[in-house]
Structure prediction request, 318 residues.
Amino acid sequence: MISVIGAGAFGTALAVALSRDGDPVTLWARDPDDVALMQDKRENGKRLAGVSLPASLHVTAQIEEAAQAQTMLIAVPMQALGDLLDTPAPFMGRTLVACSKGVDLRTGLGPADVIARKVPDALAAVLTGPSFAIDIASGLPTALTLACGDEPAGTEIQHDIATPNLRLYLSTDVAGAQLGGALKNVMALAAGIAIGAGLGESARASAITRGFAEMKRFADIRGARPETLNGLSGLGDLILTCTSEKSRNYRAGLALGRGEPVPGGTVEGVATAHAVTRLAAEAGIEMPLTAMVDALLNGETTLPRAVEGLLARPLIKE
Ligand SMILES: NC(=O)c1ccc[n+]([C@@H]2O[C@H](COP(=O)([O-])OP(=O)(O)OC[C@H]3O[C@@H](n4cnc5c(N)ncnc54)[C@H](O)[C@@H]3O)[C@@H](O)[C@H]2O)c1
Ligand SMILES: O=P(O)(O)OC[C@H](O)CO
Prediction:
């Protein structure tokens, strides 16, 4: 049996997809009132309106019920993951599949690393790649990366989670998979800024491409394999998130570029830009786009100054 921890848009979408054919799935939400509403309406009206919850999907606020499952997909926002796992008992000895995308501000770790640190006896894996919650919940064809350092165990998880419309590619590069998902959110902010500020689609294409170079540079120093960044978890998600207004990170970038307030909610690239700017500086590598996004978000620069600074950088080889 599988359980999903966190009933946001993505957790709900995964739970719906995995239970659609009648398989029993438990979805855990922390708020009992939200759970009561979901049970009553058979819909998560707050986060994924218009999608019916299949009959075999059980929603609960009791973590012990979710802990009945050997495999738990954890889909809470990145900055909430560490706190969630501070009560490790329900998660011990389980297979924990991290679905969050980001870098933890406090520790600089990715989601699988946070799991490994907080619940050392669990088997950690990562599910990531190009996927909007509504697409997965609607049963549209989606291809994602399932990364697990233990290949035989990863193969088992891959087959457990895949559905006819949710195709999973296996990787053993956990570091690369979790970084691709985290860093593409920062680049989606940059791409949104380019369009929001009226800099044009050519500028956005440059931001995506040079952003990808930054992603690979950072991933390299964190021990990731380059081919992982070229796959679904890196390039695939970068393309989706930098080009679609369905993305919250891209929409936040659009607002920033237009000089409007950045919308609230789960915009993972904001904290990740901050964490990665610090980590890159410590490691002595240049990540100019990431640093620009962070500085703009913190009000440390203005858009004209940021663009001027990027264009005035020394001319280098590609
Ligand atoms: N929405 C998508 O399309 C999508 C796709 C792929 C990956 N993700 C990733 O999934 C993660 C969650 O995103 P989302 O879209 O589901 O967010 P969301 O904003 O829709 O919902 C977040 C949910 O997390 C819950 N939550 C917050 N803190 C919590 C805590 N400490 N304990 C338990 N629950 C907590 C909130 O109550 C809320 O239900 C993010 O890292 C995101 O990048 C999202
Ligand atoms: O809405 P976003 O920007 O968090 O993006 C959602 C997914 O990560 C896209 O793969």
In short: The mean pLDDT is 97. The first helix runs from residue 9 to 19. The pocket of nicotinamide-adenine-dinucleotide (ligand 1) is lined by residues 6-11, 30, 47, 75-78, 80, 83-84, 99-102, 131-133, 265-266, 268 (CB under 6 Å).
